[in-house]
Amino acid sequence: MVPHDENGPGAVECGAVEYIERSLGDPQVGGKEAVVAGLEAVDALARQAYGAALAELGADKLDGVVSAVECGGGAAGFFAMMRRLVLEGMFCDPSWGGNRGYAGWDLIRYPGPRLAVAPEDQQVGVAVKPFRPSGGSHGH
Amino acid sequence: MAIKLKPVDVAVVGLGAAGGVAVSPLTRAGLKVAGIEAGTWMDPHSFRPDEIHNNVRGLLTSVPKANREIPTFRDSPSSPTRPRISVHPMMNAVGGTSIHYWGQSWRLKAWDFRTRSEVEKRYGVSAIPAGSTLEDWPVSYDELSLITILWSMRLGCRARRGIFRVLRMHGGMCLNRLGSGSIRCLLCGGRAITI
Fold first, then answer.
1. Residue-number span of the structural domain to which B179 is assigned
2. Domain tally, chain B
3. Greatest Cα-to-Cα distance within chain A, rounded to the nearest angstrom
4. What is the per-residue pLDDT for B167?
5. At what angle do helices A32-50 and A16-25 cross, to 10 degrees?
6. Which residues of A touch B56 (CB under 8 A)?
7. Do A93 and B195 touch (CB under 8 A)?
8. How does residue A138 score in pLDDT terms, banded at 50, 70 and 90?
């Protein structure tokens, strides 16, 4: 959904897969059934269009299936749900499993969350110093 | 096994926006007060700037107890009941949902207490759909005006835009738009500090 390109790393390099796996593996979060049902519907779409399982398709045909799903093919709402999960995995705090090595935040030049911003960080044309406490241990 | 505690003058059940605030005048009047709260004490680490934690999963606010207690929703009388619209901002904690309220304390007008009567007077009885549950409040603005003013003063409300301050509340933090002067947290007495 978000491939590596000239702008930088894609969703996989940013750790979105691990984020999604952890998210779906957490019974408090849920959503696993909807993802499995959506994947089954997309697999059926691949078999119908190309006569092969989704996992066996090459990159070109895979792109075709993704485009079809984006336009409403397969399970309803599946593309939007996966897109949301992918973006969460790219840009979340790394403690959730995604945004590996802050690759997602570096991609969009996001320095990190902070409650107060010092005057020196508000100068025009000056890059803001990264503020990246280790995952999940935000202090004030 | 039940533990018998020392008797007190008043036991306040639930230390949220109502019970938590009620403790203050009771203790100031010299009464012994015990507060009973199902939720926990929040500390600064509860309020981490993390969208997955707060917004996506709702872990700060949508604790299981709040989710069982909040009102359920239906789109129409015949549609199935849903437990909640999305992540619900209700909290179980000392301070309740007031911990993360937006620091806006709107003053109700006299009209707001008599919504049905005033709508009927202005637009006619037919303006309210049949079966509407709209009712006037059982109390009037005048009956509540003194306590409303006292509340506004304690909270530091002002009508015009003021400076932003951080109000330290029972170990947590609460952004509040407050006027000048010495402001103290209603619940813990913590002093407001300017950032």
1. 157-195
2. 2
3. 61
4. 44
5. 120
6. 88
7. no
8. very low
